[in-house]
């Protein structure tokens, strides 16, 4: 199966081919072994970093590839479509955008070239908290200014890759919620150099999850962050995080499209090869149609994501496409996963087929980084003009 839109010339065909070549060195056995022990794919992330793929969105003046967002989407889609898992490192692509857009000249010069060179890892994003969840502005972590530093207290949850990152982008409240006009004000974004505070105010505790995602709880106990690590203006951090969300949604959608393509290819091949009752199982409509339906869902999601990427790259508002694309792609990958498991019968449950692993991995994207309900509420309110539902 073609891994991109068949009828059109793909501007990122070369990137896709290179990424696939790299991913071929990390077959199912590699991921299965890591999955069993919840290990981090250090060699895979190193290979992607050395090839420059994780610095795709860093401008050339800072040592990156300076690719447009669609280039990064192509990289992540191919990673997933080959059966690998970009979750180990995808965040670097979208977290970095906050520093790029809102960081000072000093912060950009200090961090971006080192990230591009693979000397610094920016993989951790500390927004979600146990008590506030999706209600981000209710978060309780505080950062109090004392002289030339901030003192941070509180807790984050689901801070993925915290153990495998040098830096964390952290959202904390700098002005109490009852002292701001709008609850979206008074939140600030910081670059935390975790190497300097681990064990000195910062504690990281891994959470074992359904799939291998290296997610953690993170605790701050009078953790000191130099004032120079504040990104942009104090109190405006929520806006900076929101600014990056469309890019994040489009990239996650691209990963789901990659997953859907992997499942569909696997299911299609098996449906053609497996012979029962004297004919391939794919000759039965009950087997064939769910695969065909998932393909149609994937292609529809792909078209919306493409529109979103084009609008993003033209600097136009793309909230509608980014949200719809993320939801549709996550649903398409899940439908494709379902079809793939059913097509394989009992073998769909055997670890050596990688289907059950991918099935667990792709399930996440209906919940994180934003759940389907919250996407629907965005569309209901902001696109369709209905009353706010929360
Ligand atoms: C493996 C994993 C990795 C993650 N990585 C990160 C990370 O690196 N950094 C980070 O900051 N976060 C991360 N997250 C957190 C993720 O973004 C949240 O789990 C997600 O946004 C949902 O928030 P919640 O879990 O607190 O659920 P809640 O906000 O408690 O919501 C629970 C359910 O209620 C629904 N709901 C809530 N409010 C409404 C409403 N008003 N209307 C309709 N339905 C509603 C939601 O849709 C959801 O289904 C990760 C999560 C997981 C599971």
CATH superfamily of the largest domain: Butyryl-CoA Dehydrogenase, subunit A, domain 3
> What's the CATH topology label of the largest domain?
Butyryl-CoA Dehydrogenase, subunit A, domain 3
Order of strands in the sheet with most strands: 1-4-5-8
- Number of helical elements: 13
**Protein structure class:** alpha+beta
Reading the helices and strands in chain order gives HHHHHHEEEEEHEEEHHEEHHHH
Tell me the helix content. 40-55%
**N- and C-termini, Cα separation:** 43 Å
Mean pLDDT: 96
CATH architecture call of the largest domain: Up-down Bundle
Low-confidence stretches: none
Oligomer: single chain
Overall morphology:
globular
CATH class of the largest domain: Mainly Alpha
Q: Compounds present?
A: flavin-adenine dinucleotide
